[in-house]
TrEMBL record, chains A, B:
GO terms for molecular function: DNA binding. Pfam families: TetR_C_19, TetR_N. This is Transcriptional regulator, TetR family. Keywords: DNA-binding, Repressor. PANTHER family: ACREF/ENVCD OPERON REPRESSOR-RELATED (PTHR43479), ACREF_ENVCD OPERON REPRESSOR-RELATED (PTHR43479:SF11). Coiled coil: none annotated. PROSITE patterns: HTH_TETR_2. The keyword Repressor applies. Residues 11-71 form the HTH tetR-type domain. InterPro entries: Homeodomain-like_sf (IPR009057), HTH-type_Tx_Regulator (IPR050624), HTH_TetR (IPR001647). Residues 34-53 bind DNA. It comes from Halobacillus alkaliphilus.
Amino acid sequence: MPKQTFFNLNDDKKNKLVEAAREEFSRVSLYEASIANILKRAEIPRGSFYQYFRDKEDAFFYLLNEHAEERHKNFIENLKAFNGDLFQAMTEVYKTVFQFSRENGNSNFIRNVLMNMNYKIEHAFTKNLTKQNIEHRFHDIYQLVDMEALHVSNEKEFYHLMQILIAVTFHNLVHCVSNEFSETEALDKYISELSLLKKGLVK
Amino acid sequence: MPKQTFFNLNDDKKNKLVEAAREEFSRVSLYEASIANILKRAEIPRGSFYQYFRDKEDAFFYLLNEHAEERHKNFIENLKAFNGDLFQAMTEVYKTVFQFSRENGNSNFIRNVLMNMNYKIEHAFTKNLTKQNIEHRFHDIYQLVDMEALHVSNEKEFYHLMQILIAVTFHNLVHCVSNEFSETEALDKYISELSLLKKGLVK
DNA sequence: TACTATAAGTGACATAATGTCATATGTCAA
DNA sequence: TTGACATATGACATTATGTCACTTATAGTA
């Protein structure tokens, strides 16, 4: 989490800093990113950066969490719109994230995020920060999903189902973005795998 | 790939260097690893390192590929031993990798690999280097697997099935290692998810 | 208004990392 | 012995990171 001083910043300065960080993290991965470039773009001195953020990661995960928050809201909305159809809701999120990764303009942030996806990044994406939050959100989803359609009989089984779905969704995203699939190709692959998932892998 | 000079090294020097690298990559992740530490341990000058490897990654992926090669052989053996039962063979590999991640002695290499798993690392793990190799290996597996038991009707569907299985297997490994699960807990989780995968997610 | 405590801003600096290159050394065949 | 080639070496240029002593701003108080 950024330090309080960051949140105390006036909007202009804050936005300029956030944009500078986003540009740098769009250029390269978290590990290759250079704080010096962010400073240059944001026109702030080195000391100030450390006044606002603990380090490079802190700034990166701030941006990522902002994005993840949006995706979570989308997911909940989709779940409602599709009457609890988990797979349709997930497919919409998949599409959205994939489209973000295709923005060729100023921001390749999501593309870089996906191509360097690891446990910590996935975690930031799917859960949000606190243990409490995770359980709370999981429960929200559990309430909204149409369980009748699913092959699970309790919350624990549903947890496993979600783990599988998340694994396959991210794996697809990363694979398709890394291999520069078109949106149609990516969606085809994802839908094929979802369909196999639904019907089961064995006879 | 390491440079030819590396392979020309006499065994003593080569082993010392490889061990030095393994120790460093066991201490921290690829990105945090310091070449200086490898040099100190291997007692070679800086210039020599770059005579043998292109960079830090080069050394890291050399070690990883060695390991992945072993796992691939295991997998093929298991597939034969279990008469083409894909799930049993995969569960054995899962167990083995998990056990490697638990080695508390000199080497936490696999633990660090799993905890920093990303696309590139997964790729090194599952495929080996060349496109040709990937297709070749995939075909080998396709020949060995008992297709009768599976819910797929052609090689393309089998490809999707393997993608799912790989996604879920790695996701489990990373999750269980990151959260310090015991071997029993990890195996329980994996088996639960495999069972859900087999029977299908929807009714 | 002047004073003071607290927060925020600043950039030079210590430290450590990476990759390169000119130079030195070793090896082997003619 | 010589020359061509491969290998070895460590000083160096460059670029990072995170800290700290010091300055400046702000807001509450006498």
